[in-house]
Write a structure and sequence with these properties.
Helix content is 21%, strand content 29%. The protein is an alpha+beta fold and 190 residues long. It is elongated, with a radius of gyration of 21 Å.
Length: 190
C-alpha cells in the first residue's frame, strides 16, 4: 500500500507543478511577452524569414512609441496576421518620400543604422512620390527595412495605436541568431 501512496503523491505533485507552470505561462503570454515569427522578407536583412522575436506587451503602456521602434501590430489588410515593421513617423510628423529617401518634417531621415547605403525608398498607393502626409493623432507611419519587398504604410496607410501589439526586443530563434532588437534613435526632427 505504501507504494500506491508514493505514486499518488508523485502524481499530485506533478499535477500541481503543471498547473502552476501553465498559469505562469498564461500570465506571461497574455500580459507580458509574446513570441512572434517573422514571415517573409519585409525586414531583411535585419530580421530574417522564420526568425522568432519576443515582443514586450507592457512597455508601450508606459511610454509612447518612438521613431525607430520595431513593433508588431495587427495587419491593416488581414486581421488574422500580425506585421513587424519599423516606426518611421509619429503623430504630428510630416512624411514625404522624394528621390528615393524618406523626409520627416522636411529633413532627410538618416537610416544608415539599419539600411545599406544603396537602399532606396519609393512611394506607393497611399504615399506617392513627392506627396506629403501628416501623421494623425494616435497613428504611426511604419516601413519594412526591405523597402522593395515590404507591404507597409506606403501602400495601406497609417497604423493605429490600438492595433500595436507591442515592441519587439529579442530575436531568440534560431539560437544562432540570438540578439537584442536594435531600435534606431534619430537626431531630433522637429
Amino acid at each position: 500500500m505504501p507504494i500506491f501512496r508514493k505514486i499518488y503523491t508523485i502524481f499530485i505533485d506533478l499535477a500541481e507543478t503543471l498547473v502552476i507552470a501553465g498559469a505562469i505561462f498564461v500570465v506571461i503570454y497574455a500580459f507580458l511577452f509574446r513570441p512572434f515569427q517573422v514571415n517573409g522578407q519585409s525586414m531583411h536583412p535585419n530580421y530574417e524569414n522564420g526568425e522568432y522575436v519576443l515582443t514586450n506587451l507592457i512597455t508601450l503602456r508606459f511610454k509612447q512609441v518612438e521613431r525607430g521602434d520595431v513593433v508588431v501590430f495587427e495587419s491593416p489588410t488581414n486581421k488574422e496576421k500580425d506585421f513587424i515593421k519599423r516606426v518611421i513617423g509619429v503623430p504630428g510628423d510630416e512624411i514625404m518620400i522624394k528621390a528615393g529617401y524618406v523626409f520627416i518634417n522636411g529633413i532627410r531621415l538618416d537610416e544608415s543604422k539599419y539600411l545599406q547605403p544603396d537602399v532606396k525608398t519609393y512611394g506607393g498607393a497611399f504615399l506617392a512620390e513627392g506627396v506629403m502626409v501628416r501623421v494623425p493623432p494616435n497613428q504611426y507611419f511604419a516601413l519594412g527595412d526591405n523597402r522593395n519587398f515590404s507591404s507597409d504604410s506606403r501602400e495601406w496607410g497609417f497604423v493605429s495605436s490600438n492595433k500595436i501589439v507591442g515592441e519587439s526586443f529579442l530575436v531568440y530563434w534560431p539560437v544562432s541568431s540570438l540578439r537584442l532588437v536594435e531600435h534606431a534613435r534619430y537626431n531630433v526632427i522637429n
